[in-house]
Write a structure and sequence with these properties.
Thermophilic metalloprotease-like, about 35% helix
Length: about 270
């Protein structure tokens, strides 16, 4: 509650919200079509008026939505998309500041195949919180990553080759961003948005992803002229197809990133938000 208190001390108007796995599961089980499509008007107003957003992930059950109807999940995601798009628009203009972080829980530790103590150490190392001066450490990260950004800014094309992967894309004229702990936390990446029609080839994700409480394993995507033309998964393939069918943009490669955080020495299976 420290951030809540500090917001009050600085004259701000904090508005805490709580999202529970149980309510999400019940909503997706019992909501009718009209309820899935409904977005409260005050949420649109809040999205226009908030100045800063602080999100803390602290799931107690990351698989709570594993049995939810993927059709309902995709329909709800489509209903909420205008809110998300407006959030991104205001953030891009600098009108809205945001940060997202993770609080170590037993559920996250289980997914990462670690004890809670091990996972806590993993997260805090990735956050550079174990450094004598974490702020100075992140400034060092920022300077190092800026060198990579400057190099990549001169590149026009990228090819990724690995087992099950041979993907080419164009980044000509695109701007690379330096993510150095100011938004996602822990952070440590450089990224850009590739030319929308440029991705061609195949990519395989050898580690699972968890989205909306549903784990998808061994995802393989084939791109042609920037668009996914074939998608398979060893687990929850139907859900993968539902997500790709959200809209035309869902089938296109929106971001290409390089992770740079030296504290992340393995890829734990954590939810994607």
């Amino acid at each position: 509650m420290r951030s809540y208190r500090q917001t009050l001390e600085r004259g701000g108007h904090p508005w805490p919200t709580l999202d529970l796995e149980e309510t999400q599961e019940l909503f997706l089980r019992y909501a009718a079509a009209a309820q899935l499509d409904y977005v409260a008007p005050f949420l649109h107003r809040a999205m226009e008026e908030i100045d800063a957003s602080i999100s803390v992930w602290a799931e107690s059950n990351t698989k709570a939505l594993s049995q939810a109807d993927p059709g309902k999940q995709s329909r709800r995601a489509a209903a909420l998309k205008p809110l998300f798009d407006r959030f991104l628009s205001r953030a891009a203009s600098g009108d809205l500041r945001w940060v997202e972080t993770i609080h170590p829980t037993q559920a996250f530790a289980q997914d990462a195949e670690m004890s809670l103590a091990e996972f806590e150490d993993f997260v805090y190392r990735a956050c550079r919180a174990d450094e004598a001066d974490p702020i100075a450490a992140w400034r060092e990260v920022s300077a190092r990553q800026q060198g990579l950004v400057d190099f990549l800014q001169r590149c026009s094309a990228i090819r990724v080759v690995a087992e099950g992967t041979d993907l080419t894309l164009s980044v000509a004229g695109r701007t690379w961003e330096n993510r150095d702990g100011r938004m996602n936390f822990p952070d440590g990446e450089v990224f850009t948005g590739p030319v929308e029609s440029s991705a061609n080839g195949e990519i395989r994700f050898s580690y699972p992803a968890c989205l909306y409480g549903r784990e998808v394993e061994d995802v393989r995507l084939s791109f042609r002229d920037g668009r996914v033309v074939k998608a398979t998964a060893a687990k929850n393939e139907a859900f993968l197809h539902e997500m790709l069918a959200l809209d035309e943009g869902a089938k296109r490669l929106g971001e290409f990133a390089l992770g740079t955080n030296p504290g992340i020495t393995k890829c734990p299976n954590l939810p994607v938000f």
